[in-house]
Amino acid sequence: MAAIGKAAAGRPKMGEEKLIIRSEKLRFIDILSMMILRRPITSYAFVDVGDQTAKDIGITPGDIFVKLTEIIQKALASIYTPAKWLGIIVEFILNFFALNGGLLGILWNIVRFKLVIPRRDAANFRTMIGLIDGRTELKPAPAASAGDLRQLQVLNVVVSGEVADLESGYVTDGTPLVLRQYLVLEITVMAAKIAYENAAFVENVVNNVWKFNFVGFYNGWNKFLKEDTTQAFVFTDRAKDASIVVVAFRGTEPFNMQDWSTDVNLSWLGMGAMGHVHAGFLKALGLQEEDGKDANRAFPKDAPNGAAPVGKYIAYYKLREVIREQLKQHPEARLVVTGHSLGGALAAVFPALLALHKEADILARLGTVQTYGQPRVGDDAFVKFFRDEVEAAYYRIVYRYDIVPRVPFDIPLVAQFAHGGTCVYYDGWYDGKVLAGDAPNPNYFDPRFLPSMYENALGDLVKGAFLWVRAGWDYREGPVSLLYRAFGLIIPGLASHSPRDYVNGVRLGRIQPKQL
Asked: What tens digit of pLDDT does each residue of 61-117 get?
């Protein structure tokens, strides 16, 4: 896709550019055919390809990563319903024990007729992400120290119209770096984490724990899946004269196989000047047509009449409306967009769509985009479009061998997805560095990295059990978190995707000045 992307950026094409892999139409015989024969990937009935793309790819066969992706897709589809119900049962049981104070608490509450039954929409109900890491409080900004700067203080963030002094950690008028109390990265990583929870939980944390101003929680309609698949919430630091407006997208839910399938899907759509963009992420935000020739028809600037059922919203258009209103109410505020996992992908595509639609008033107020464990979202042309059209700083945080930033696979000609932004990479003890390119082992399955991946998985498990001894009680992990880490010994990189390590990286990680 890099070659295609560069060609697309350099000269106009007359045909349609798209590659949509319809895994639901994939048959077992197709998998055998891909494994044995070297047929062009575009020749299969389950592949919907544009005429221009068919010319560009030519007779290029689907390589091992195409075959592997489709096997993964079929496997995920086969366990969609069992995984969904397993998640519901596991979360109910764990919340039942947590809300009643454990086994003894359950017995005592039965005696007192005060047994608490978990409700998924209640403010005290936690998803699996919240059960792995129950922290909700924001950690105050640390003081800057010479010779060992936290990465939080080296991000070029604009606050209330003032430019941060990156060396001292203070804005030019002498007040602390951001929000006078918290660093932006601390706010974004916690917002990305609690975005997995229900609306009542999020509202309670924002208003009562953070003492910020909750604006709203939004469900986005997906025309192609015919259900609400996208969740995001918006908040400001104050109800009046806010200095920051934050949009946080929900990410890949552990038991939602549809989310995981979207992350690894190789399908992409030509979006004109925006380049080739992951079709699943476009659909999550509100794609209207799989049109790889006319970007305005595929994703029009304004929502078409009847685009969503009555009472439903399309994520992109609804959030754009809410953001515009908030920026109008808070003329000194800067916009911050964030998300973890799939939410990070949406956080990257969202401002690119604003640029495609010439939403200059919103983009002028965009301060930063900060994503965590984000999958790839587009080709080289998309990366260049974002860099040229979105002036805000874009930071992409990656922890160790986290599997999600390494998908969709980077496959020449067929689907060569690329990462953009500034990559801040953390190892097991949260020592960070800024990378010029991608994180190590970019396609995940490189056998040369296998020993290191398992070594890191074991190291993370041991670290999780004893980190609190060095870092403090706030970093103590319970049985659920440690069990989740143990899964990393089966699928290395899976446990590294937990928001817990991203929160720890933000709070404990350091970047040496010489690396910047």
From this structure: 667 888 889 899 999 999 999 999 999 999 999 999 999 999 999 999 999 999 999
pLDDT tens figures, 213-269: 999 999 999 999 999 999 999 999 999 999 999 999 999 999 999 999 999 999 999
Find tokens 């009643």 and name the residue. Answer: 100
Give the model confidence (pLDDT) of 368-380 as tens digits: 999 999 999 999 9
As given in the structure block, the two tokens for residue 297 are 């028809």
Q: Nearest 5°: phi and psi at 265?
A: -60, 140
Per the listing, tokens 């454990």 go with 102
Q: Catalytic residue numbers?
A: 341, 402, 497
Closest among 293, 421, 270 to 345, alpha carbons compared: 421
**Residue 432 predicted with pLDDT over 80:** yes
Kindly indicate the confidence band of residue 365, based on its pLDDT and cuts at 50, 70 and 90: very high
Q: What is the spatial distance between Cα 233 and Cα 283, in angstroms, rounded to a whole number?
A: 18
Of the candidates 508, 498, 401, the one whose C-alpha atom is nearest the C-alpha of residue 455 is 401
How buried is residue 462: exposed, middle or buried, by Cβ count under 10 Å (0-12/13-18/19+)? exposed
Closest of 294, 282, 247 to residue 382, by C-alpha: 282
Asked if residues 201 and 126 have their Cβ atoms less than 8 Å apart, the reply is: yes
Read off the pLDDT of each residue in 281-308 and give the average, rounded to a whole number: 95
Q: Contact at 8 Å (CB) between 274 and 382?
A: yes
Instruction: Give the amino acid at 65.
Output: F
The per-residue DSSP string of 2-18 comes to: HHHHHHHHHS--SS--E
Alpha carbon dihedral 457, 459, 461, 463, in 10-degree steps, equals -150
CB-neighbour burial class of residue 470 (10 A; exposed 0-12, middle 13-18, buried 19+): exposed
Is 326 or 182 the better-scoring residue by pLDDT?
Answer: 326
- Cα dist from 486 to 256, 269, 364, 457, whole Å: 20, 37, 45, 8
Strands 213-222 and 227-236: antiparallel
Contacts 24+ apart (CB under 8 A), 71-78: 71/31, 72/264, 73/21, 73/23, 73/26, 73/261, 73/264, 73/265, 74/23, 74/26, 74/31, 76/257, 76/260, 76/261, 76/264, 77/23, 77/24, 77/257, 77/261
Q: Which residues contact 204 (CB under 8 A, 6 or more apart)?
A: 123
Tokens of 79: 């366990």
The pair phi, psi for residue 501, each rounded to 5°, is -70, -30
Mean pLDDT of the chain: 87
Distance CA 418, CA 437 (A): 10
Whole-structure pTM value: 0.90
